[in-house]
Amino acid sequence: MTKGRLTLPSETNFLEETKELIERWGADAIRDSDGTKLDEQIKSLPAKIYTTYFVARAHNEFAEKHPEETQQLYLLSDRITAVNSSVTISFMKGFLKEQIKPDYQNDAKKWWEVIDRTSGEVVPTTDWELEKANDQVIIHQAKAFHEYTVSFLAYMIWDPTQMYNHITNDWGDKAHDIPFDVRQPYSNHHMKTYLKQWLKDNPDTDVVRFTTFYYHFTLFFNDQRKEKFVDWFGYGGTVSVRALNDFEAEKGYRLRPEDFIDEGYYNSTFRNPTAAYLDYIDFIQAFVAKEAKELVDMVHASGKEAMMFLGDNWIGTEPYGKLFESIGLDAVVGSVGGGATLRMLADIPHVRYTEGRFLPYFFPDTFHEGNNPNIEANENWLTARRAIMRKPIDRIGYGGYLSLAYKFPYFVDYIAEVADEFRDIHDKIKDVKPHTVLKVAILNAWGALRSWQTHMVAHALWYKQIYSYQGILESLSGMPVEVSFISFDDIIASGVPADIDVIINAGDAETAFSGGDYWENTELVTTIRKWVYEGGGFIGVGEPSAIHKNGQFFQLAQVLGVDKELGFTLSTDKYFTEVKTEHFITQDTKAFDFGEGMKNVYALNADTEIIEYSNGEVHLSSHDYGEGRGVYIAGLPYSIENSRLLYRSLYYAARKEEAFEKWNTTNPACELNYYPEIEKFALVNNTMDSQETVYFDGQGNRFEVTLEPSEIRWEEI
Predict the structure, then answer these.
(1) What tens digit of pLDDT does each residue of 433-451 get?
(2) Which of 61, 296, 334, 661 could hold 310 in an S-S bridge, CB 3.0 to 4.6 Å?
């Protein structure tokens, strides 16, 4: 057993058990969690002490004195159909009154909006009235059978994360944390004076774990205490009358409620962002960075480290944004749901170290009689480990109630093994660049700002409609390729970067990840066509480059060799259905899994290499385009086989098939990572079964090997 690089959660009255697990797991830091505290005896143990610090919540004594400074957001009522000239809308219907309270302090006629959703017109303020007693808006001179909505400003009177933890852990009568807005004068003064005194009162704290700073991602609940809307990237909870006035003064124009409501989509990260919304994101980032730097400077002046939790109130920090460096943080910690979230943390620049909070949480929904927490822990570790082999984080840790985990001895034993393995990997390859042949660019509307964050709901969660895309990043996270993220605007302004071998564009039509109306831009389309024609590789997944225009749906249909039938060309015969029974891309594929897949995709001509065709549809194909290639995949949920299929697709698209067997394995369940700087390579078994494989070195030599379940075998050159 080795020691260090592990943070252990603990709690009051758990001293002896904590000492035991510090020794068993080799922990060198102890933390509290939301709902737990560390007593003085635990703080005296020989380990760094992390203390969770809430900047804009958990200060109810202050917040209750200044209800006008509670955080706000814009919300949209149900759509109500007018059947005559008068219609009443109960705009709070479906919202949780424990969390949401309408803003009746500011002038609703100025800050709210009533919209005819049938015509798209804003209803004049003279044609509606507000009944505060009933939380209703009454519209006069309505048009029969038009649908109407109310966009209303509300206070968020219960912090969403504390609410989730409250419900999950059945905290009963525990007080509801009221989030306050540090843009407001009293709140801004309070957060700074409180931290100043807190730093003096907590001399045992070594690391202040900001959870996080000011604004929660957009999350509000329905009247059944269930999530109604959640967007881990949403800026909806940053709005206030003061923010709107400050924005207008700085940017020179005024935002509407609709700029936040966004027809009811609330600027979901799946939507192409408007110019106004991007301006607002920049505006909030500038405020958050400036204010957060002041707090970080105070922490440093007290001799402590400043760590940010990448979650909860993280909005405005944007670790891949242009202002993140200015905050001056020492570290970032975040939840690890798999390889993609591991890389999201590990690749963050401008901090001294990164830390991953692994699953499962030590919560009663997992740690209860009859359940085996090792199953989730093992899956979490093996998926994250693939990414660690490419870019290790610096520390691992866990969260929740240690007393719950302690009741499961076999879980305690397993985490001890994980901790030792992590430390061994880190000691060998931290700051060592792994060998790569290809550089891949993920192309979407967000670009580098949301690196490793595409098709993500919250951490590693996904919806049915997107797991066919989420698997792309999960596969890439542990693959021996270099990954970058570029936006459509980047290409329009500067072209395709010279070092890119393959571009991947993946997503449903009209989403920010496929591109939607970006593909109406002639410069974008012709630039990519030219780049592929001159030797680049392009992989499209789902509905790439899709927008119905000029007689085709995929605007790069001629590159990909396929298009999607929308029902307009059913009269045009489609003769090209012959399948290539053997292909480089599918040499390791035994069964196809395209997830939700994509309906009605067909080959344009005989030059298209159809690799999988069923139910009268193309699901996998390739097409030469000048000196380059386009590859089409209907969907790619994560699996060992699909990861290999994508890996082969990248080499094929880049026309580098001859390099595929260098530093590689024949068994997709095993991966090889080569580190030229230290003249070592690692053979990794990504399963809980014994695996046999042949591996190839850089000279093409073959070696047979058997790897034990989940084994990592290190070899020197």
Answers:
(1) 999 999 999 999 999 999 9
(2) 334
In the chain, what percentage of residues exceed pLDDT 90? Answer: 94
Dihedral (C-alpha) 200, 203, 208, 211: value to the nearest 10 degrees? -70
Cα separation of 579 and 620, whole Å? 10
Q: Which residues contact 413 (CB under 8 A, 6 or more apart)?
A: none
CATH 3.30.870.10 fits 6-58+183-229+270-429, yes or no: no
Residue 45: exposure state from Cβ atoms within 10 A (0-12, 13-18, ≥19): middle
Q: How much is the pTM?
A: 0.95
Pairing label, strands 617-625, 218-221: unpaired
CATH architecture of 664-716: Sandwich (2.60)
Q: What is the mean pLDDT of residues 78-90?
A: 97
The active-site residue out of 312, 347, 508, 563 is 312
pLDDT band at residue 165, thresholds of 50, 70 and 90? confident
Secondary structure (DSSP) of 649-701: HHHHHTT-GGGTTTTEESSTTEEEEEEGGGTEEEEEE-SSS-EEEEEE-TT--
Q: How many CA atoms lie within 13 A of 492 on its CB side?
A: 14
| Mean pLDDT for the stretch of residues 9-24 | 95
Q: How far apart are CA 179 and CA 127, in angstroms?
A: 34
Is 312 an active-site residue? yes
Q: Kindly report the CA angle at 537 between 534 and 539, in degrees rounded to 5?
A: 145
